[in-house]
Write a structure and sequence with these properties.
Bound molecules: guanosine-5'-diphosphate-alpha-D-mannose, magnesium ion
CATH architecture of the largest domain: Alpha-Beta Complex
Number of helices: 7
Helix content: 10-25%
Strand order of the largest sheet: 5-4-1-6-11-8-12
Shape: elongated
Largest sheet: 7 strands, mixed
CATH topology of the largest domain: Spore Coat Polysaccharide Biosynthesis Protein SpsA, Chain A
Oligomer: single chain
CATH superfamily of the largest domain: Spore Coat Polysaccharide Biosynthesis Protein SpsA, Chain A
CATH class of the largest domain: Alpha Beta
């Protein structure tokens, strides 16, 4: 049975303030820590043993997931004292793997929501005889990703992480953040120092003539590294557009966790999720928004594509669009915030103090 490594040590800088108290994979998406969806999908594909490579806020994973038995998994945790980068993190957990030198080992970035057919990726790896196989997807703007041109047979020709010049943009195929490594390739990564699998390991392997195989598909794919993407991903899980066996309830326009209180005339649409213990007041209209546990949204507030942190408070009639409200923050009544505004954890925005001006 194929085992897997999950890379969950990144700082999640772009998701701040959501990642001030919580590492990115533990921020709730569709009512459960995002990582739950990845673990459940791996389990559904037959993976039983998963090693979590942790670093930033490492201490929160094990108390929540424990030995993994609640998900039918055997989970292990390995924490880097100093972040070792993606390749260093993979090498650092090698001693926990049970696979033989020729066996395939799955590796996942910890912030990807995808419908990837995991078994198909392993099958491509085995039939191609590759050293490493990579899941690839096509995106409109590839600049923020690793570019991976392939030949007619799907063999990888180059790996260009986050290209800096237009000449480097040679394809719209990008590294989708799921790999199968031959075990012996993991053991050959230098130990005890930071290594980037994208900037060092893949280019070095290609230069030495190793066989890297790409598998391109067009299934659902999203990197949840920004607030916009995170909110989109959570809504798509609720709507059933992104597949996960771990959504706690039936898919549809909204997901209301059991202990939440929602006024009967509040309108929840577009994959909105209301977390445990959250309270939604009368006449509130909330679209494609994630409201985390314990938050309060008062009467007549209008929220769209936003993320409301744990125990945060949104006052009456306040309008939020594409906004992150950090844990414990308060946005008083009659405010209007839009377009990427982020209210820091525990901050207080006084009532009637912010208006959004548009050219009329
Ligand atoms: N343990 C550990 N230690 N994990 C780490 C470290 C580290 O030092 N650094 C990053 N990670 C984890 C992150 O938690 C995340 O799950 C994964 O490695 C990728 O890091 P990101 O910071 O999210 O990278 P990215 O999104 O900019 O780029 C990566 O993903 C793209 C696809 O979304 C690259 O792999 C690109 O090539 C790829 O296209
Ligand atoms: Mg990422």
């Amino acid at each position: 049975m194929t085992e897997a490594i999950l890379l969950v040590g990144g700082k999640g800088t772009r998701l701040r303030p959501l990642t001030v108290n919580t590492p990115k994979p533990m921020v709730p998406a569709a009512g459960v820590p995002f990582l739950t969806h990845q673990l459940a999908r791996a389990r559904a594909a037959g993976v039983e043993h998963i090693v979590l490579a942790t670093s930033y806020l490492a201490e929160v994973f094990e108390p929540y997931f424990g030995d993994g038995s609640a998900l039918g998994l055997h989970l292990e945790y390995v924490t880097e004292e100093e972040p070792l980068g993606t390749g260093g993190a993979i090498r650092n957990v090698a001693s926990r793997l049970r696979s033989g030198p020729q066996d395939p080992v799955l590796i996942f970035n910890g912030d990807i929501l995808t419908g990837l057919d995991i078994k198909a990726l392993v099958a491509v790896h085995e039939t191609s005889g590759a050293d490493v196989s990579l899941h690839l997807t096509r995106v409109a703007d590839p600049r923020a990703y690793g570019l991976v041109p392939t030949d007619a047979d799907g063999r990888v020709q180059a790996f260009l992480e986050k290209p800096q010049t237009p000449e480097e943009i040679v394809t719209d195929q990008i590294n989708a953040g799921a790999y199968v490594f031959r075990r012996s390739v993991i053991d050959a990564i230098p130990a005890g120092r930071p290594v980037s699998v994208e900037r060092e390991t893949f280019p070095d392997l290609l230069a030495s003539g190793a066989h890297l195989q790409g598998m391109v598909d067009s299934t659902y794919w999203l990197d949840l590294g920004t607030p916009q993407a995170f909110v989109r991903g959570s809504a798509d899980l609720v709507l059933g557009r992104a597949p996960s066996p771990a959504v706690p309830g039936r898919c549809g326009d909204r997901l209301i966790l059991p202990t939440a209180t929602v006024a009967p005339d509040a309108k929840l649409t577009g994959g909105t999720v209301i977390g445990e213990g959250a309270v939604i007041g009368p006449g509130a209209r909330i679209d494609a928004t994630t409201v985390l546990p314990g938050a309060r949204v008062d009467e007549g507030a209008v929220l769209s594509a936003s993320l409301i942190g744990e125990n945060a408070h949104v006052g009456a009639r306040t309008i939020l669009s594409d906004v992150v409200v950090g844990d414990g923050a308060t946005v008083g009544a009659d405010n209007e915030l839009r377009a990427g505004a982020r209210v820091w954890c525990d901050a207080v925005v006084a009532p009637s103090s912010i208006r959004f001006s548009s050219d009329e």
